[in-house]
Amino acid sequence: MNRYVIIGGGVAAVGCIEGIRKADTEGSITLISGEKKTVYCRPLISYYLQGKTDFEKMKYRSDEFYEKNNCKLVYDTAVSIDKDAKTVTVSSGEKIPYDKLCVATGSSPFVPPFTGLDNVSAKFSFMTEDDAAEIEKAVDENSRVLIVGAGLIGLKCAEGLCGRVKSITVCDLAERVLSSILDEPCAKLMQNVLEENGISFMLGDSAEKFDADKAYMKSGAVVDFDVLILAVGVRANVSLVKEIGGETERGIIIDEKMKTSVEDIYAVGDCSQGVNALTGQKNVLALLPNAVMQGETAGQNMAGADTVFDKGVPMNAIGFFGYHALTAGIYEGEMTEEKTDDSVKRLFVKDNRLVGFMLLGDIERAGIYTSLIREKTPLDTIDAEAIKISPSLLPFSLKYRKIKLGGSKS
To answer: What are the strands, taking DSSP E only, across 247-400?
Structure first.
């Protein structure tokens, strides 16, 4: 009977459990979770700050999920892997043996070595339920909040706190919000929405040092605050595999079967660096659906199946105050664009295929575009012009519609 071990307790780990059980109902599964709680949906933590949800509703699977799948939970931190003895050592000193191991350790906040940061009285990251709970305790209606980082994490925190505190200032060295996702015109649309809801920005500027609850900016400005949120970026948690000689770059290098370079060890989710289906290059594709699909693929292969996940593409789903943006793929080739005062639709076509899109405002039926990219559908096999104007399944062949809508396999 196989012994399966999973390090990490997020959605990628859930996918792995479900993948294992599709192929093996008998083997033992042990899940090691350093966060010491069952799986939840991380993107919802900003809605917790808004009072729109609670931790019980944020659960990604029921508490009974683990028992039903005969999965033992170990609430501890994995500190090392012995690839020869095939054991994982946790902080208590216990050694957990495995036949197949999946590393789903996610990522951690990157905190630059700011001078004086240790003297800040109330500083937080914003990645976990615990972070959200601590911020919730720290703020009140008189709080002045400074957020360092105008990426997705920082802006979701700003949205969550809006209306609950006295002021919110977001700073970033980049000249625009969401600089890794949106270009300047699209970023400006999103910034306008945030500013209309009372969030202030200091872009092209960032904190250089701190003195108690004062931030000294590169521009020479001084910002007083009561609560500091550090959302500069994240780094994949690769150390467990790197320390045993596994191949790593920005993430743990994996193939299309989720295998690492170390025998019988797989990696999935935000800690992994897998194949970008559009470019063939290996990228960190940090997105919840990718993590789940990677996990399921790894689980099945750990249990003896032979399957691949070869549809990983860069994607981002963003929304603030009811205004949404979706991006996917790469921005190469011929671009077509439709714009209004508050919406943008850009489609990128290369070699007879849709390879990317950027949608702001009107994102209805974006799944059609995503499917075209993932499936690498030749545009000359469908009514491509109709798809560009109004995405629907009607321009597709009857056979395709039967597969998508009726469950047909052929």
So the answer is: 252-253, 265-267, 272-275, 282-283, 315-320, 323-329, 334-339, 344-350, 353-360
Q: Beta 265-267 vs 100-103: how paired, if at all?
A: parallel
pLDDT tens-digit readout, 214-257: 999 999 999 999 999 999 999 999 999 999 999 999 999 999 99
Q: What residues have CB less than 8 Å from 99, skipping those under 6 apart?
A: 2, 3, 4, 86, 264
Q: Of 42, 207, 263, give the one whose Cα is nearest residue 131.
A: 42
Place of tokens 């957020």: 147
Using CA atoms, how far apart are residues 266 and 97, in angstroms rounded to an integer? 15
Identify which of 58, 68, 63 has the alpha carbon closest to the alpha carbon of residue 17.
68
CA geometry: angle at 90 spanning 89 and 96, to 5°?
Answer: 50
pTM: 0.90
Residue 268: both structure tokens together: 């999935």
How many whole angstroms separate alpha carbon 33 and alpha carbon 40?
12
User: CB–CB of 285/250 below 8 Å?
Assistant: no
Digit-coded pLDDT (tens) for 254-305: 999 999 999 999 999 999 999 998 888 999 988 888 999 999 999 999 999 9
Measured in residues, the chain has a length of 410
Phi-psi label, residue 264: left if phi above 0, alpha if psi -120 to 50, beta otherwise: left
* Residue in 369, 367, 362, 366 with CA at minimum distance from that of residue 189: 362
Measured torsion, CA atoms of residues 6, 258, 327, 48, in degrees rounded to the nearest 10: 0
Distance CA(254)–CA(246), nearest Å, equals 10
Beta strands in 219-283 (DSSP E): 222-224, 227-230, 234-236, 252-253, 265-267, 272-275, 282-283
* Euclidean distance between CA atoms 52 and 37, whole angstroms: 21
Rg of the chain in Å (alpha carbons)? 23
Neighbours of 361 (CB within 10 A): 19
At residue 351, the 3 state secondary structure works out as coil
183 in Cβ contact with 348 (< 8 Å): no
Residue 350: closest CA among 367, 366, 369, 330: 330
Rounded CA separation 307/298 (Å): 8
Q: Kindly report the CA angle at 276 between 271 and 279, in degrees rounded to 5?
A: 145
